[in-house]
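Good day; I would like, with your permission, to put a structural problem before you. What I wish to show you is a protein chain and, alongside it, a tokenised description of its three-dimensional fold. Here, with my thanks, is the record as I have it:
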Amino acid sequence: MRSKVMSLIQKAGVARMLTLLNRRAGKRPVVVFHRVHPKFDHLTQPIHPNEFREFLDLMLRLYVPYTMDDINTTEERACFITFDDATLDFYEYVYPILKEMKVPATLFVPVNSIQKQERIWNNELMHAALFATKDEATYEVDDYVVKVRKDAELDELLQIIKTLNSAPSQSASIVSDLTRTLNAEKSEWAQPMSWSQIEEVSQNGVLIGSHSLDHLSYEFMLPDEAINDSNSSQAQITKMMGEKPMTFAFPMGHVNHLDAVKRNYKIVCSTEPRLYNINENGPVPRISIYDTTAPEMLLRMTGFHSLIRP
């Protein structure tokens, strides 16, 4: 029912109307995706490749896509497609579509995930719950207890991730311990890209940005830790790619120590769900899109959902 309603709204011209109003107001959409994959899971909620292709087709009728280094282009039809986390499905499912349709995009890379060929820690937690062979695992840390159930619901894991964000230096080790206890099966689910794959996409219309070293939230970092993390991730990407990234996306959208991060980056992104106002000075807001239909994706990038759910 929802998909039919969104399709009817889009066909009625609502997306086009909102797009025109946004242009007059100097607003432009920046959207962020995480996973595109033909197999659905209830935790990362990937978009099906067919829906992603259809979304791009609809989007190109209204917008001209750019990479994030052109955020202040004078092109009034500009929009910006971004991806976080650099999981392998970007290379397998997104990149071929982008290349075929000649759509530029920006990919934010969590450096140590690529370097070590390990999932980012929050994806590892979700993988453990999805592929667990044991019923549950418990970890006591300081004054709280972390408990993960096999086949846990998304809200449960998001609460655990929120808890672990308050202890960023321990997050990865705690998740590793939980994964061992749950005895999760090995799989290719949400595995990272390789540096050679990142190099390839960067030669074909994909701008590479930093998504920190270990995808740890900056919310609870000290200023020196944030400076070291953002600087080190930039240096490592420069070493591997031969070009310094000047765009940065805060892990999980948690903006903190902004002035410190902006010392080395020209463009810094959050996941605040609203349209970008041309030449605004703060972090660039990005509208997150997860599993849904192409018409609803288009409506979401116009700000439609913020109008019906303020």
